[in-house]
């Protein structure tokens, strides 16, 4: 017989003798307990049989564990290994004497000793048991080689112990996560820097040397992607990064510090993309329409902030939504967010802009024609040039509001993102607008620019949206009631098409960033007829929706409209303090 077998046999005989020792008092015990002892004996025999077959070295511990399990199955017992030891010690002196005699040669005491020996002196008692200690529970039980049994003897201490372990684990993962995020940011920054290599031709070495030349640098004047660490309290960095390494400052989403507020079809997209060539500029991907759409504005600034791109400290985030310019509630809302925000307004010769607008609207098969304007037309020359000349910006704006609200009801055809007069004011006006039958999109699309812009009696349809948006002074007036003139830069969109660098230089100065976007960032694309952007990893033109071919417009109508706008343009020049030299016929 092997030692294991002997141990298994002695363990079972110990148990049976232990149960026999108490059999003398069976008659006094309740029937339930007697049954329980019988059940114990049966199980022990089964276990012995099982151990015999398994021939496992750890069978003695298995028996011990089985014994504990049996007690746990007792309806009145809640056994624990330590309780087991105590129970062993709580037998009557007679029983103890009997047991003592037997235990000297049997495994009851050795089992107890084994249990004591195997118990780690921790709040957690850990037993490593062979699989034979477990009664098979399912098919998988046979695959289990060993069982780890953890018993908690001091629950409070164990909870503290586990809590400390969990916190340590959390902190470890936090540091690892932080480090991983920084590595990703660093990789992105390197990629970005690579993309902008022309703009950032002053390399990291130059940055380091300029830093060395100026020991108290304004970080805003260093390239943002690679900055030597100044000091640990100036720039936060992950714990795992040695401070001597090149440091990638943390990015976060920031509310815009500058806005391109319009004007629609004047080159707002081109302007944003060109500015984005500058390493200090980050741009919001699409038009967010936060300030002009109530459904967005009511979501709050945090919603808006989350729409912004990640940016490094020192970078300027810019968003563009051209409809901000013509939406009445926007200036006040923008000021509520940031009273010192920088505003970029790009304008273009008003008639060309109107034709561009018409081209886009037509391409969406829905141009706007306004009931107010139709009524004006049928009323004759009442809304003609003479009447317009006496209009103040605010009264003219009220008329345009009513017109725009109807324009909205039509869906304007410019796509939701370009709805110029979304918002409460427009809806209020819509409720009071007369319900003239709405022309179908097909009917609208079939109309020429001339038909839409000039009434049959020869007067200008000044409420026609492409024209009303070109009345820049009307809209700008509201902005300048809220913001000082110095906070707004007027960009000449016609010049941006012809000579982007000169306009960008002005904008860089206005934004307080170094002159970085240069002629090498552009090339003229003959096919497109516009400047396209040049990166070191490829060239990119704006989409085909930018730079559409305009339809031919009767020169007489163009001349008529230019005369019409001459007065408005003068007012605009006065407001901005600059003559943009737009033709007057
Ligand atoms: N480099 C370059 N490439 C292409 N297009 C250029 C460029 N610079 C300015 N533009 C002019 O941008 C006009 C479109 O203006 P927007 O981007 O403001 O349009 S929109 O309001 O966002 O729909 C667009 O108007 P259209 O020519 O009428 O299509 C262009 O004239």
3D architecture notes:
The protein has helices spanning 3-21, 31-54, 59-73, 81-89, 93-103, 107-118, 155-195, 204-213, 268-275, 294-297, 301-306, 330-337, 350-363, 371-378, 385-389, 393-410, 424-432, 441-446, 449-453, 465-469, 472-482, 493-498, 500-511, 555-576; strands at 124-130, 146-152, 251-253, 258-262, 281-283, 310-312, 316-320, 342-347, 488-492, 522-525, 530-535, 538-540. It has 24 helices and 12 strands. Helices cover 49% and strands 10% of the residues. With 585 residues, it is α/β, with parallel strands linked by helices. The protein has a 5-stranded parallel β-sheet. A 3-stranded antiparallel β-sheet has the order 10-11-12, with no helix packed on it. The radius of gyration is 42 Å and the shape is elongated. It has 3 domains: 3-19 and 32-151, no CATH class; 162-249; 342-576, P-loop containing nucleotide triphosphate hydrolases (Rossmann fold). The structure holds 3'-phosphate-adenosine-5'-phosphate sulfate (PPS).
Write a brief structural summary.
The chain has 585 residues and is α/β, with parallel strands linked by helices. The protein is built from 24 helices and 12 strands.
């Amino acid at each position: 017989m092997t030692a294991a077998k002997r141990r298994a046999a002695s363990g079972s005989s110990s148990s049976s003798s232990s149960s026999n020792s108490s059999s003398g008092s069976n008659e006094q015990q309740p029937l339930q307990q007697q049954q329980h002892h019988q059940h114990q004996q049966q199980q022990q025999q089964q276990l012995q049989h099982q151990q015999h077959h398994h021939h496992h070295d750890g069978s003695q511990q298995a028996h011990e564990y089985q014994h504990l399990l049996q007690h746990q199955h007792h309806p009145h017992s809640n056994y624990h290994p330590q309780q087991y030891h105590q129970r062993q010690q709580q037998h009557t002196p007679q029983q103890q004497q009997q047991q003592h005699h037997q235990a000297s040669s049997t495994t009851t005491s050795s089992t107890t000793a084994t249990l004591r020996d195997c118990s780690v002196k921790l709040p957690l008692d850990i037993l490593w048991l062979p699989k034979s200690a477990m009664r098979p529970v399912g098919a998988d039980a046979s695959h289990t080689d060993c069982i780890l049994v953890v018993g908690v003897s001091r629950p409070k201490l164990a909870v503290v112990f586990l809590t400390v372990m969990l916190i340590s684990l959390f902190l470890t993962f936090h540091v690892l996560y932080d480090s991983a995020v920084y590595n990703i940011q660093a990789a992105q920054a390197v990629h970005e820097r690579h993309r902008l290599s022309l703009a950032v031709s002053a390399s990291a070495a130059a940055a380091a040397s300029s830093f060395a030349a100026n020991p108290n640098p304004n970080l805003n004047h260093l390239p943002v992607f690679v900055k030597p660490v100044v000091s640990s309290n100036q720039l936060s960095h992950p714990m795992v990064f040695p401070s001597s390494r090149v440091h990638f400052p943390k990015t976060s989403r920031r509310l815009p510090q500058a806005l391109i507020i319009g004007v629609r079809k004047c080159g707002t997209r081109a302007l944003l993309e060109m500015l984005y060539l500058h390493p200090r500029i980050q741009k919001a991907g699409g038009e967010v329409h936060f300030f002009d759409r109530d459904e967005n504005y009511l979501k709050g600034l945090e919603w808006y902030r989350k729409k912004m791109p990640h940016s490094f400290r020192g970078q300027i985030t810019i968003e563009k939504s051209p409809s901000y310019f013509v939406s009445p509630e926007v200036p006040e809302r923008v000021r509520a967010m940031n009273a010192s925000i920088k505003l970029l307004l790009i304008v273009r010769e008003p008639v060309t802009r109107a034709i561009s607008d018409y081209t886009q609207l037509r391409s969406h098969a829905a141009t706007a024609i306004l009931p107010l304007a139709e009524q004006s037309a049928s009323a004759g020359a009442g809304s003609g040039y003479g009447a317009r000349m006496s209009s103040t910006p605010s009264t003219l704006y009220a008329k345009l509001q009513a017109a725009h609200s109807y324009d909205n009801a039509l869906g304007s055809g410019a796509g939701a993102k370009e709805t110029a007069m979304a918002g409460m004011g427009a809806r209020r006006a819509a409720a009071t607008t007369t319900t003239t039958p709405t022309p179908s999109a097909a009917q609208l699309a079939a109309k020429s620019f001339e038909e839409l812009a000039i009434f049959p009696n020869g007067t200008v349809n000044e409420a026609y949206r492409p024209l009303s948006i070109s009345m820049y002074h009307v809209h700008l007036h509201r902005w300048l009631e809220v913001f000082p003139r110095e906070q707004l830069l007027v960009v000449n969109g016609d010049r941006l098409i012809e000579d982007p660098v000169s306009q960008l230089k002005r904008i860089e100065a206005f934004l307080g960033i170094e002159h970085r976007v240069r002629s090498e960032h552009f090339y003229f694309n003959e096919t497109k007829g516009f400047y396209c952007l040049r990166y070191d990893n490829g060239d990119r033109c704006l989409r085909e929706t930018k730079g559409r071919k305009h339809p031919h417009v009767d020169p007489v109508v163009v001349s008529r409209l230019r005369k019409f706008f001459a007065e408005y343009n003068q007012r605009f020049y006065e407001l901005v303090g600059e003559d943009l030299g737009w033709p007057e016929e």
